[in-house]
Amino acid sequence: MNSEKRPSIKDVAKLAGVSTATVSHVINGTRYVSDVVTERVNHAMEEIGYVPNLLARSLRSHTTKTIGLIIPDLSNYYYTGVAEGVERSLSEKGYHIVVSNSYEDNETEKSIVQLYNSLQVCGLIMVPTIGSQGYLSSFVGSNYPIVFVDRRPSKYEGDYVILENTEATYEAVNLLIDRGHKRIALILGNKDMSTTCDRIEGYRKALSEHGMPYDPELVVEGRFSFDFGYETVKDLTKKQKIDAIFFANDTASIGGIKAIKELNLRIPEDVAIINCNGFEWTEITTPPITVVSQPSRELGKIAAELIMNRLQEKTEGTAGEEGYRHLSVPTKIIMRESC
């Protein structure tokens, strides 16, 4: 064979001793092919270096078997966990994902959706940014299904899967109150996030059930970052006495713990701490941190299952018959020595 000639599907079929149709079925999974023949075809493709032309295949079939995924922060382990859950589930079904970072910016989110449209994705999973997702009605319409993950969308109706943030915060604050804490600070993300609203609801519910007043000075909302956590804890301890903190984010809690150490405060004797997410670092601090464990991979897995169900319904012509699906995933508190 001429080394400059690109291997074709005919070359694969000839080497494997099968028809080109059989090679196509192996590549596309469009018909059952025995394991023996499949192995022979795969070996032939590997031997001659044949790579299927996915773009040409998608143009013929009008589907790319590619799902777009938009998350707000690729450096956040929580969201990489979501992405891993999505990718693992979809790859088992023969789908691929394209991942983009919205940087928590609504305009960037819009441009990514437009890019995905040009790539002919067959579905979209996204963590919605702060701001309106109403533009999706005109940008996407009914061209492909959308599933929101971790947060509810704004000004757009659709499927979503979220964590039980209200209940998680309620249980965490209850735990702190039961241990005698009365001045409990709540350090949150942006006030317009659905997760922030849910956590405030759980916080207020716990206080109310114990006959404790809600003090807005103890509830601080902002952009999750090390500096935000650090400065917030410094400000809180200067302005008033606090004896416990519930951090809604790992990065902010790291900054907050640094501030506590610099102020020569002891954990949990002076300030008790509960943190969301619970990555490995929370186990090796002194003391280890009590956490609300958030199953981000499970969240991504469920979002992938939702999108696959919607794609199946679209194929069968039954899309929309059951209405939108709103799912929530429970969390759990892992007790350690910080409270």
Mean pLDDT: 90
Strand arrangement in the largest pleated sheet: 2-1-3-4-5-11
Biggest sheet architecture: 6 strands, parallel
Number of distinct beta strands: 12
Instruction: State the CATH topology of the largest domain.
Output: Rossmann fold
CATH superfamily of the largest domain: Response regulator
Class of the largest domain, according to the CATH hierarchy?
A: Alpha Beta
Shape: elongated
Decide which structural class fits the backbone. Answer: alpha/beta
CATH architecture annotation of the largest domain: 3-Layer(aba) Sandwich
Radius of gyration: 25 Å
Question: What attributes characterize this protein structure?
Answer:
339 residues, alpha/beta, 434 Repressor (Amino-terminal Domain), Rossmann fold, 3 domains, 6-stranded parallel beta sheet, 6-stranded mixed beta sheet
Helices and strands, with pairings:
Layout: H1 9-16, H2 20-28, H3 35-48, H4 54-61, E1 66-71, H5 77-92, E2 96-101, H6 106-118, E3 123-126, H7 136-139, E4 146-149, E5 159-163, H8 165-178, E6 184-188, H9 194-209, E7 219-221, H10 226-239, E8 244-247, H11 250-262, E9 272-277, H12 281-284, E10 290-293, H13 296-316, E11 326-329, E12 332-334
Parallel strand pairs: 1-2, 1-3, 3-4, 4-5, 5-11, 6-7, 6-8, 8-9, 9-10
Antiparallel strand pairs: 10-12
Helix pairs in contact: 1-2, 1-3, 5-13, 8-9, 10-11
Walk me through the structure.
This protein is an alpha/beta fold and 339 residues long. The protein has three domains: 9-52, 434 Repressor (Amino-terminal Domain), CATH 1.10.260.40; 61-163 and 297-330, Rossmann fold, CATH 3.40.50; 165-293, Response regulator (Rossmann fold, 3-Layer(aba) Sandwich). It is built from 13 helices and twelve strands. It has helices at 9-16, 20-28, 35-48, 54-61, 77-92, 106-118, 136-139, 165-178, 194-209, 226-239, 250-262, 281-284, 296-316, and strands spanning 66-71, 96-101, 123-126, 146-149, 159-163, 184-188, 219-221, 244-247, 272-277, 290-293, 326-329, 332-334. The strands form two sheets. The chain has a six-stranded parallel sheet, sandwiched between helices. Strands 7-6-8-9-10-12 form a six-stranded mixed sheet, sandwiched between helices. Helix 1 (9-16) packs across helix 3 (35-48) and helix 5 runs parallel beside helix 13 (296-316). The chain starts with 8 loop residues before the first helix and ends in a 5-residue tail after the last strand. 40% of the residues are buried.
